[in-house]
Amino acid sequence: MKSRLTWPLIMLGSLLAINLFVNPSFFQIEMKDGHLFGSLIDILNRSAPLILVSIGMTLVIATKGIDLSVGSIMAMSGAIACLYLSGGNYPEGSWLPVIYAVGIALALSAVAGLWNGLLVAGIGMQPIVATLILMVAGRGIAQLIASGQVITINYQPYKYIGTGYLLTLPFSIFIVAFVFLITVYLIRRTPIGLFIESIGSNPVASRLAGIHAAAIIFIVYIFCGFCGGIAGLIMSSNVSSADGNNAGLWFELDAILAVVIGGTSLSGGRFYLLGTLVGALIIQTLTTTIYSIGVPPEIILVVKAIVVLIVCLLQSEEFRKKFSKKRFSKKTFSKKGVSV
Amino acid sequence: MPENQLRLQMKGISKVFPGVKALSNVNLRLFPGEVHALMGENGAGKSTLIKVLTGVYTIDEGNVWLDGKPISARSPLESQELGISTVYQEVNLCTNLSVAENIFIGREVLRRGRIDWKEIYRRAIKLLERLHLNIDVTKPLSSYSVAIQQMVAIARSLNISAKVLILDEPTSSLDKTEVQELFKVMNKLKSEGMAILFVTHFLDQVYEICDRMTILRNGELVGEFKTTELPKIDLVTKMIGKELQVLEQLPNTILKDKQTSHGAPFMQARQAGRKGSIEPFDFDIYKGEIVSFAGLLGSGRTEIAKLLFGADKADTGSIIINNKTIHLNSPSQAIHLGIAFCPENRKTESIIEDLTVRENIILAMQASMGWFKYISRKKQDGFITEFIQLLNVNPPNPEMLIKNLSGGNQQKVILARWLLTHPQFLILDEPTRGIDVGTKAEIQKLILSLSQEGMAILFISSELEEVIRCGQRILVLRDKRVIAEIKNDEINQQNIMQAIAGG
How many angstroms away from the CA of B295 is the closest CA of chain A? Predict the structure, then answer.
């Protein structure tokens, strides 16, 4: 576990170091109006949706699955919440409507996850195909919910989810921390984590050992949909609007990437939640860094791709071995050559 | 024979894995035109030696010569090109491809840049004829039995101009006539000058076909012997490194005299069957009783076991457990009713490769306890130390990944998994397949002592000797049908053979 975290942490550290080099005040955190401000807080705040989606994705991938629909689920969740809130004029300061909105959005997300689970565990469809269906259909549903418009709302309590502050820190950080800790608890203090790893590693043997594989897979997809729903709420609350077309677009890919950078194999089995957390932070820091050092917008995607490639190569033990062997032989050679 | 005629020589071979010295200073010599046995218990280093030779693993220390020239294969492909062909224990073929495709995969015959199927089929048929096998080479491999798949694997390795042929436990899934067919082929290849390295756990086969043997123990070389000069009993002693007390005859007489019907049966099947897998059968098992199945490969032994465990659903008849009719739907239901099942195929149906020994052991118990009751680490460690000691798992490290254990030790871990659930009825499907003599005896002893404690045991094995030694009652199967029951004094090799043969 330690060695698996080493390289992602080094990557994250060097990204932060680049930022510090470019902008010496990067690590500064100030207190303004009882709120903490600074680039680090910013990164944490902005990465909240990605971390949430990646947590769900980690568990799905651990069962040898994949969930391509989370981006669409985010859009659906945001759209339904905004639609509900755009309906009436609520008195300022009343929290009840926002609780209903969140409840409806999360229920819809869980149903979306249930649908994925039904296709994968119930019918036995391949996860990539099964979730592709909702990836396409879900975006359509989100547009239907929003009637093809961008719904904007002006309702303070809803804004709090994505932009509010609690105990000097952005509220979204608390949501992430809460979901992460609950997940870690369920995974490590109940046998569910063991069952997930077992199913991902050998589904046949797991069934013969008495594990209800189908039930576990169901739960995992529902959980992943649920995480996508929370992420969608944070995102839409951030901008006080819901855009069925673009909210959470391609998010599933970033989440899969975060999981892989974190050391969980796409072929299932062992998974590393802490690794996923670091992976998601790397992706967000990278995005922030690219903007802050002023990479021209037209090559942003190329730069991102190159950095991701480097991270993935460093993560691969095989590659590191080859690389270090070559370097080692070069070193011994140069020692011979330099006869000081 | 003089050294310079050696086909293959390995000298001073060492290989270290994290935490284990798998091989230390091992030598091996193969002459052209001989069948050479590589002997040793589970975990002795046989598989490692083969993998080092064929380039699956790299060698830490030592050298290899082929026809007097030093070689160092870095990949299985390279070693194949050098003329070393291997048929592994677990058949490494693609069952969804056709027989011919499997034989020629990776080296298709081309004609003007396109695959020449006609030629491939012609050559495949010719190759298989050499093995006295007459099958449709265009059919997918999955439509044939494991035995035929094994032959195809051998045919595949013969296609290359091989100088050395390595057969890693090729006979463990073959029946008697198929073994004889294989031996015919081996003898033919031998007369053509091939050097054959043969790994098996069947001592009789070693004495039947091998000229010389190399014995390993705990990753070290015990020695190289001529088969004619080493009596069987000495071979076993050298393999397990201690005198033969373990193999002493188990108390047969006491067991056979025991009454088999005390009280109500634990489990009964009445005309239970499943279309296409097993004809309707009756089956009774009482507490403390050991029932064995005898029958050839594919006779329906495993199918019955899976039915009784709920892994396959019966579509006719009924199953009665403790006088209650039960609709067995799933393994987890069977486990709750006190049934445990060690499947035949360790790699695909038993072990969870990515998990540790500890996690593999607690899995079934944990699954039966539901999703929220977690067995505390302290409790787990307690169980596991107990079972590792009881079953003598080697290395005794619960945090090791199970895939790094030898086959026999993996089997012990799976046994531990089921014993931990305290079953009332234990189904063992080929629990001793591919396992060395010492461990075999240990497992047989364990089975006997468990039955004396009141556990009902269904023991399935291809080895008649084992079936006779352990079973108090033997059901004979043929062609997916239970055809005979043999009890008490009638249990002997001849009666069983007759029943199997249909006499």
Answer: 24
